[in-house]
Amino acid sequence: MSLNGLTLSCFSLSAPTPSQFHYFYRSPLESSWLTLNPPSYLSLELFTLLQFFDALRNLLESQSYPCAGQDPPSITSKDPHTANLAADMRFYRTNVILPLLEEGKDLVLVLHSYGGASGGGAVQGLSKREHQAAGQKGGVIGLIYITAMCLLVGMSVQESLGLSDEMVPRTDVDEAAGILTVNAPIFQFYSHASTPEAEKWAAQILPQAIKSFKQKASYAASSDPIYGGKCAYMFCEDDHSFVLPLQQLWVQSSGITLTETLPTSHSPFLDMPKETADITVKFVGSFERME
User: Fold this and answer.
1) Cα dihedral angle (151, 156, 158, 159), rounded to 10 degrees?
2) Which value, to the nearest 10 degrees, does the dihedral of the CA atoms of residues 193, 265, 190, 194 take?
3) What does the pLDDT read at residue 24?
4) What are phi and psi of 286, to 5 degrees?
């Protein structure tokens, strides 16, 4: 497989403010089409901005894996009542993934937390296998789920997490405003971080559109046979938000067999950024060998 122009993309569910998908495709090699590795697409978590992934992005880009991303409507929309899971899926697909594929790039999606639902739902028909069959260049060569939900088609985020209609005890709901806010974010997301760092990220958390939790998934790459063997999962053993048995249930139900484990909280790129980057690159290598 040619490794020219591979881009990484990232999606997630629990950090800062309104840029959960900033576009940062920066590689001095890219302008001359000499990028030695596949690009990636970073997808953030709920309540969080893309800057949450800076340490991981920097480590990946230092190894010639350019990254791209933007913040989705579920945390940026001025009218949360119009933002839902489908809107996030369309946003990622239209604004980040398709423009890169139109340039003939190979993509790996790095999905964290809620990003497993939104990013994993945005790639229908975009695999490299399907692009090649249609005589097109580029395509999605794999998806990496980092303590991320693997929804089944017809299931909502709320149902996947086993939450009541009131979304308790994890969140506070404001039905009139169409938003929910997370409870105890330091415990849920940053339990391994130092107090100053945990407080820094907790202060940047944003409200999330309620409908992004309630709308049922219309598509999920993790259960699509076209992506069989092209999905990988990074377990986080001490995640207080998505506990390990829940992560294991998602992997079992989706049939993902390529896995690694880190002894981290919900935020491995804060706790163990180098190890997270190393596993990400290892997964990418596995995807490349299958092409």
Assistant:
1) -70
2) -10
3) 23
4) -65, -40
User: Roughly what angle, to the nearest 10 degrees, separates helices 273-290 and 54-61?
Assistant: 50
What whole-number distance in Å separates Cα of residue 123 and Cα of residue 109?
A: 9
Alpha helices in the chain (DSSP H): 54-61, 73-76, 85-92, 98-102, 115-118, 128-133, 157-161, 185-189, 195-202, 211-214, 244-254, 268-271, 273-290
Cα atoms in the Cβ-side hemisphere of radius 13 Å centred on 26: 7
What pLDDT does residue 8 have? 60
**Cα(207)–Cα(278) distance, integer angstroms:** 32
Question: What are the tokens at 35?
Answer: 């990028």
127-141 residues labelled b (16+ CB within 10 A) or e (exposed): bbeebeeeeebbbbb
Q: Average pLDDT across each block of 10 residues of the chain; the chain has 291 residues. List them in order.
A: 46 34 23 37 56 86 86 90 94 92 91 92 96 93 95 94 77 91 91 94 90 95 96 97 96 96 96 95 91 75
> What's CA 93's distance to the chain center, in Å?
13
Name the one residue in this structure whose structure tokens are 């991981």.
56
Phi, psi torsion values for 11, nearest 5 degrees = -140, 150
* Share in percent of the chain as helix, strand, coil (round to 5): 40, 20, 45
Length of the chain: 291
pLDDT number for residue 109: 92
Following CA atoms 15, 19, 23, 27 in sequence, which dihedral angle do they give, to the nearest 10 degrees?
Answer: -50
